[in-house]
Structure formats: structure tokens, C-alpha cells
Amino acid sequence: MLRLAARASRCVRQQGVVVNHKKIKRLMREHDLQPRMRRRHVATTDSDHDHPIFRNLAKDKVVDGANQLWVADITYVAVTPG
Fold first, then answer.
1. 26 vs 23: CA distance, rounded Å
2. How would you label 2-38 residue by residue, b for 16+ Cβ within 10 Å and e otherwise?
3. CA 12/CA 20 separation, integer angstroms
4. Whole-number Å distance between alpha carbons of 36 and 13
């Protein structure tokens, strides 16, 4: 948030108002203005492995009602190292 407060204070200074970036940061916090955080890309799939790749058994099923086909997929489970 400091970068955004510094950028906002520069913008306000260009308009002729003298203001500290800390005051901008406080005002932004009081008015619940927060910058959108960029999400980091997390690679969850490693297709280059020697493990077996299983067929999709539900691929050709025609489902026309409830409780005819149940499917589960655990694609990514975060595990702490160690």
C-alpha cells in the first residue's frame, strides 16, 4: 500500500497541494481504500512425470438425473516442506 500512497501523494503534489505519503496512507485506510493485489501464478500441474495417467471413466456417460455420477478431483494440495 505504500507504493500506492506514494503515487497518490505525487499526484496530489502535482496539483499544488503539499501532503505527506503517510497522511495519504492514513486517509486511504480510514476510507477503506485498498489497492488490488496482483495474484501470483502458482504452477500446480507437472505433466512431465513417469506416473500413470488414468482414463476419464466419466467421459462417455450420459447423466439425465441426480446422483447418477459422482466425480472427485484433487488437483492441488499445498504441503509444507519437511
1. 5
2. eebbeebbeeeeeeeeeeebeebbeebeeeeeeeeee
3. 10
4. 23
Distance of CA 19 to the CA centre of its chain: 33
Percent of the chain with pLDDT over 90: 11
Q: Torsion-angle region of residue 43: left (phi > 0), alpha (psi -120 to 50) or beta?
A: beta
> What distance in Å separates the CA atoms of residue 76 and residue 73, rounded to the nearest whole number?
9
pLDDT of residue 64: 93
Cβ contacts of 57-66, under 8 Å, gap ≥ 24: none
- Quick: pLDDT tens for 22-53: 888 888 889 988 777 788 887 777 788 888 88
What's the pTM value of the predicted model, to 2 decimals?
0.39
